[in-house]
Structures are given as C-alpha cells and as structure tokens.
Fold this sequence. Notes:
With 881 residues, this protein is α+β, with helices and mostly antiparallel strands. It has 25 helices and 23 strands. The model has no long low-confidence stretch (mean pLDDT 79).
Amino acid sequence: MNIVNKLTLRQLKMNKRRTLVTIIGAIISVAMVTAVTVSVSSAMDLMKRVAISSDGNWHMRYHDMKAKDIAILQEDENVDKVVVSYPVGYSILEATKNSDKPYLFVKGYNQEGFELMPVNLIEGRLPKASNEIVIPEHLESSTGLSYKVGDKIKLDLGQRYAINEETGEKEEGTLNQGYSFVRNAEGESMETFAAQQTQEYTIVGVTKKSKEEYSWSPAYELMTYISPDEIPSEATVTVSVLLKNLNVGIYEHNAALGIKVGIEVVEPNSELLACYGVNSNSSLIFALFGVVSIVLIIIMAGSVSLIYNAFAISVAERSQYLGMLASVGATKKQKRDSVFFEGAVIGGISIPLGLLAGFLGMSITFGAINGMFKNIMSIEENLHLVVSPIAVISTVLISILTIFISTYIPARRASKISAIEAIRQTTDIKMNKKKIKTSKFTRRLFGFEGELALKNLKRNGRRYRATLFSLIISIILFLTTATFSAYMNRSLEMMVQNTNYDIRVSVNYRNDVERKVELEKLKSLDKVEKYSLLETVYFEANLPNEMTPSHIKEFLGGIEERGYFYNVNLIALENEALKAYAQSVGTDINLLNNPQTPAAIVLNRAKFKDKETQNYRDEEVIRASINDKLTLSRREWDEASNEEKILDGEEIAFAGFAKEPPMGMGIQENDNTLNLIVSEDVLNTLMKNSNEHMGYEISSYPTMYLTSKDPFGLQKDIQALQENSGNPIYSIYNIYEEKQTSEQIQTVIKVFIYGFIVLITLVSVANIFNTISTSIALRKREFSMLRSVGMTPKGFNKMINFESIFYGLKALLYGLPISFMIMVVIYKQLSNSFDFDFFVPVGSIITVIISVFVIIGASMFYSGAKVKGQNIIEGLKDTNL
C-alpha cells in the first residue's frame, strides 16, 4: 500500500462520523438494489409455483389428438416429458344431492401426469395400475356416498350425448366436462347416457377436488392410471408437454408439431411461460424490458445521488488535507486515486454488508407478510427468499458501477485542488459581489435573515448544488416510482377482466315473474354478503357513422343502410341499487325513473387486445352526448317476402355515461354490444310498448349475482334450497376459483410495486436527511462566526427556515418538470403494449410538494439544533465532522 492510500485510510479513521455516514449511505444503496433483485427473483419464483399448483407444470397442450400420434411428440428433440390425459368415461351416480351433477367421471393419467399435473393427494397413494383409482374428498359430502381407501367399486362407464329437441334423436359427438347437464326450457333432461364397458376399481387414495372439475361440471372427477399403450389408437386424448429449452421460438415450433398431429391450435400455458420470460407477444416483451430498464435507472439514480453527495461533501470537507498532499508533491493522479481508493474501501465494506442487509430485510419482510399474503391471495404457496446467482452478481456489478460513478466527479475535483486554494479555502466559497447580490425585494419580503439565507446558498456554491441535486433526484425518484406504479396498475386493469361477484344464478324455466320470485329467495341465505338482481332484455339498434368508434367499425367491417349494427342489452337494476349506482356516476336518478321519457346510463367502455398490433386497448363503445337518443329495434324473418325485416320500437335517451359497471356486469370485449342501465319501471314500459309496436312478446331474463366470504358454502346452500323445492330450477355458476387466479397475479405484482414505492420513499428521505445534515455540520465554523457577531437564536432559526424554503422551491422548480418528462417516457414505453390515455398522478404530486418542505424543515431543524448548542470557540476551531 502506497503512502497516499495509507494517509487516506488514516483520514477515514480520523473523520469517523463522516466515514460512517458514507458507509451507511452506500449500504442503503446496495441493500436497495439487493432488495429489488431478490424481490424480482422471489416474485417470479412464487408466480411460477402458483401457476404450477393451479394448472400444472406443462408448457404446451394439444387437445383432441389421436392416441396413435403421441409418439410424434415423445420423439421431438425439445420435448422433455409428455402428459397424457384420457377420458375413460362417465358413470351414472344413483345417489346424489345435486340433480345437475348425476355422474362420476373417470379420467386417466400416465405416470408423468401424476407428477406434473396439480393432483393433491390427501390420503393413501396415487394409482399405479389401470384398476386403481383415487376419489375427491368432496364426493362424500356432496353425494352421501361413503367410500374409504381399500374399497372396491364397480362402474358402468360410457359417454354422454345431447338430445335434439326437435327430433328427439341422439346427436353426434360426445359431451365433456366443459358442458353442464343439458336441460330444456321446462327443466327436463335433454341428454342421454350410453354405457360401453364395466370396470372394477380399487380405491387407493383421496385427493383434493380436481382443478378441471368446474362448478357447472355434470360429474365428480375420479382419476386412474393409464398407460398410453393401453389407449385405443383412434381414441381422442389431451397431451401436455414439458419442454427442455424455452425461448420465443417454441410457439412456431409447437405450431408445426400441431400440424403433424392434426391439431390446428396449440394451447400455451401462458401464465407459467410468462414466469420464464417467454411470451409470443413480442411487443409485450419489449414493453416489459423497457419497464425493467426504467426501474434499474431509477434505482441507480437514487444510489448515485446518495453516495455521490456523501463523497462530494467529503471532498469539500477534506480540501485542506488534499491541499497538504499537493504541497508535499502529490500528483493529480495520486489525489484522484485517493478518492477512488476511498470509494473502494467504502465499497469493500458496504457491498457485503448491503447484500446481507438486503437479504435479511427481505427475509424478515417475507416472513412477516407471508400469513397475510397467503390469506389475501388464498394460496398455499409460501413467499420465501430466493437468492439466485444472477441476482447476486447483478447487485454486485450495479453497486460497483454506482460507487464508481459516484466517486468519479469528486475524484476529478480532488485532483484539481492546489495547496494555495486549500489554504485559502476558496474552492467551495467564492465571494463575488455580483454572484451573491440579492434584490431589495428579498430584504423587504423576507427580512435580513431571509436575505442572509439566500446569500449563504449562493456563496456555498458546491455544497448548495450537491444538496439541491439530492433534493431534485429524490423528487424525481418518488414521482417516477409513483407514476410507474399508477401506469402498471392501469395496464393490469386492461389485461385482466375483473369480476365483481362470486356466484351467478339463473332460473332454467318458468315465466319472467316466477323467475324473479325464485331468485328473490336467495337474498335471505345466511352466507350471502352482497347481491345484485339484474333483469335483461335484448334489443338491437343502428348507429350513425359519427356515433360509432373506429374500433367498432373495424370489428364490423362495413356499414349497413341504416347505420352500424349494434346489439343492445337493456339491463334493469333494483331501485336502491340503481339509486346508488346513479349517484356514483353523477347521474340524476329522476331522469331514470320516468317511464314516459325513457332514459339510461350507458356503460361506455370496452377492454380488448388488438389483433393486429397486439396492444391492450381501453376504448369507448359509443361516441355520444347527454340527451342523445337511440331507437331500439328487433329483427325477424318475414316468411312472406323471404327476407329479414327490422321492426322499430321505442326511443331511449342517454342520461349519463359510466366507465365502471354495477355488480354483476363486466366490461365488454371488443364487439358491437351496447349495455344500457335502466330502472325497472322503464324496462317494463319499454317491453310493453315494444310488444305492441313489434307484434310479438318480448321476455326478460333475470339473473342473481352474489358475493360471499364462503362461496363454496353458499353454493351448497343454494343446491340444498333447490333439492328442497324438488325441482332443478337453478343454474349455478361459481366463478370464485377463476376469479382467484386473476386476482393472485394482480396482488403479487401490486405488492412488489407498492413495496418498491416504500423503498424508494425511504431512500429519498434518507438521502435528503443525510445530505442536509452533513451540509449543515460542515458549516459549524460559519454558524459560530454569525453567533459571535451577534446573531440571536431567533434570527438563526429564521435564517434556517428561509434556507429550507429556498431549497424546497428551487428543488421543485427543477424536479417537477424533469419528472413530467420521465412520466411521458414511461407512458410511451408502456404504450407499446397498453393503449390508454396519458394521465398525471395528481395525488402523488401534492404529496411530494408537502413532503419536500416537511422533510427539509425537519432535517434543517435537527441539524441546526445540534450546531446551535455548541461552544462558539470550539465551532470556530472545528475542521472535522
């Protein structure tokens, strides 16, 4: 070690407080980078495990292919494992509490199927032979059948077929688990069962309910083992494959494989592939890459700001020491290298400690939120720390680069300090009359203390710029992160169709009034948390060119003689629900309750993925204004003229427009459907008048939408109510599981986005506090001099307060415009895949304006109080922190 480096170490030890402040700043920066890289790897790992536990560990799926073609997939060089799923058949279930679920369904998996698919064993073992079977745990509670491991069951297996209502004959093609039990309008069965074989099975285990047994499925799903060799060559199977190498090329390669086995569309496991960064949508990958780059730039900017200010102030404080080195012959290179060496020492200490702090902090954070996290997301997977080599290497490299960038400018400045400049102390404080001149207006407005505060900022040029830079960077960091969060949330809303209910119930038959009566009974069930009864009538309409958005024109492809064709759903809410909804969207309820002048709220929003650009878009459904009107119509076939006729009905006015749907409705996809929300009186009047105008009866279709803290328990209660009535009148659709999957993805991403905001906020606050407190501490001699010539504590406080105000105003003057420019860059980057209007997070801007003055004021008050309490003589002699 050369003499300069030894002196640098000695100087670090002598100025322990400054060294400690710098090390802490560097540790915070490294810990921040570590937290982000580890959070990303941990989040990706969790999402991967959630995707596997939900849908299985497979990458591509081939539906309805011939068993004889399985070998083609097995022989492909990029296929690692092949899962074969074979529908062995249905069996009639004599004892059942649910008349819409009268079957058992036996599905066969090969060995890889039980390894890779989400089969959750509760008791016993998995099947190893074709005469062994596992049953779901809910079979006994749902049917009353009591089976246990070791029992034997004999099943008559066959297939389901739909019956043609007109001919009464069996239709071709079998029905699978995706088709609910088929009934006609009177509730009578419209399907038949054909037995094909008898098989005896030994029950070897009990599993959780299969993910592929939906709430509307007509059978309870049992699983057995089956070898691909035992499947008839012409039988239809579903094959899922696990691939060896994952890249964007797998989509094209597997599409070619699909053609070989006679499959036109190959289904990707999109959620799992996204966790590996493999997505067929190249624009989405580009957008995600851009967003990740922006995040890394934000982190590095914050880190550079924090460490740079520590070194900049360090060099300013050490100017006498650097001048001493110059006076004994130190070259520019040696002085510059002394700062780089200091950075290396700081990095050597802070990087390992920062890594450990980041790992420990995230481990504690994950442990603290794990229980809550699992409850919120309703998942069984734990969120745990995943330390990947890539995350560690990335963190170390980013930290080294950050420290180098942070020390480069102070090192150059140190190399230029001469012995004379150091003795005279003219580097940081240069008294130039013109430079520090202030206007008379300043003295009149702020007084002597205010003028002195402004002169102090002007004459302490470098320290002032270092502090101001820190404030500006902190403002930019916070607003950039808040904007990034707001835009990501907006993008997530566009990607995922949020559902605002858990269970949908309709009545299979009976007239309009009786349907509503039956649905009304559900309101009183104990497990119902919220309910919404919607009554729908279907109309049509033709819109003029000026009222039709471009995306609808593209979807329709052309205009008819009367205008662009729209399907119109007239949806009535119950009175109290309509009143609350109208108030939420700012519409006068009185306009909606007058049947003589029918009016509606237009749900004017469509979310969809553009087929050409692959962008997610959020658009209007109609371009209209308040009081515009629409003529409702119906189409029917005229036998006499052998052509379609349009029958016009009533006119309806637009009383308001809404972006968010009421409970029970969703935001539509890209199609020509217009949803109009009306009162019950208006709906009944329009139906009556339209019946008279059009000459035939129009019916309404009521549907009940329910939410519950126990959706599956509520479903059982509805089924029990149905059994007690003796008629299978309810059609129940429980979407809770589907809803959970989309909510899980959103929650995972939001947790890390908000965690990132908290992290950046803490770093920004630490940055400001560290910079200001260190800057004030370096001005001990200056403050002691002011007190020695008669400045009172009150005057000192006023000067500090005015400095805080000037710092805040100047920081906002530069920070806000730069932040706005970065907002535009983030928006442009995300707009590659998400087509939404640019907006500014006003709440975050207000927050940052208030926070800047609060944090600066607190920092100045804390630092000023420490300086104010020192002895004047000691302050004048002070040279170190």
